[in-house]
């Protein structure tokens, strides 16, 4: 089961858990109110999993690929890790399904505080368009993930500040409506 918590302010290694002391856990309901959708799937059988097939059909996830993030597998590894960890948003939802390994997605809450979401094998997450977020590996330094898109993939990340973009304005309206 996925675990999430409010992050501390430490500037130490981004791959560390960064839990506040005492830990301030974040529930799936709190994530849902931010527009973050979590699902648990059978990563051992992702190629034939009827649940994944149904999700892809229902959500119109017509495009997918698999990426491995590890120093021996990803060209320009150090540069990519730094880029993934820069706070940004996308104009479309970001959907990631962890097939092996583990890592962290960090998202901003309505008060602009960082929430760290620990992702491991079998976890699928959908981050809504317009949410500020970032990704890093954890201390295991390895993840293999499926990336899903509606239509052709768009890889453009808009680093913060990007508050004038329509996706961000729409996301802020969503947050206001949830309050």
From TrEMBL:
GO biological process: L-methionine salvage from methylthioadenosine
Subcellular location: Cell membrane; Nucleus
GO cellular component: nucleus; plasma membrane
Protein name: acireductone dioxygenase (Fe(2+)-requiring)
Catalytic reaction list: 1,2-dihydroxy-5-(methylsulfanyl)pent-1-en-3-one + O2 = 4-methylsulfanyl-2-oxobutanoate + formate + 2 H(+)
Alphabetized SUPFAM superfamilies for the sequence: RmlC-like cupins (SSF51182)
InterPro entries linked: ARD, ARD_euk, RmlC-like_jellyroll, RmlC_Cupin_sf
Gene: Adi1
GO molecular function: acireductone dioxygenase [iron(II)-requiring] activity; metal ion binding
Pfam short name (any one): ARD
CDD domains, per database record: cupin_ARD
Cofactor: Fe(2+); Ni(2+)
Bilayer topology term: Peripheral membrane protein
E.C. number(s) listed in UniProt: 1.13.11.54
Region Disordered: start-end pairs: 1-22
Main location: membrane
Keywords: Amino-acid biosynthesis, Cytoplasm, Dioxygenase, Iron, Metal-binding, Methionine biosynthesis, Nickel, Nucleus, Oxidoreductase
């Amino acid at each position: 089961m996925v675990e999430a918590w409010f992050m501390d302010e430490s500037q130490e290694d981004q791959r560390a858990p960064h839990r506040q002391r005492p830990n301030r856990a974040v529930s799936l309901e709190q994530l849902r109110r931010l527009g973050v959708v979590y699902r648990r799937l059978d990563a051992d059988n992702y190629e034939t999993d009827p649940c994944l097939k149904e999700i892809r059909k229902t959500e119109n996830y017509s495009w997918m690929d698999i990426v491995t993030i590890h120093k021996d597998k990803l060209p320009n590894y150090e540069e990519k890790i730094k880029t993934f960890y820069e706070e940004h948003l996308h104009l479309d939802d970001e959907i990631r399904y962890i097939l092996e390994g583990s890592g962290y997605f960090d998202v901003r809450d309505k008060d602009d505080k960082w929430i760290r979401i620990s992702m491991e094998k079998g976890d699928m997450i959908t981050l809504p368009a317009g949410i500020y977020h970032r990704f890093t590996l954890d201390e295991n330094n390895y993840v293999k993930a499926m990336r899903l898109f509606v239509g052709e993939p768009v890889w453009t990340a808009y680093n913060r500040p990007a508050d004038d973009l329509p996706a961000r304005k729409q996301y802020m309206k969503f947050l206001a409506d949830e309050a």
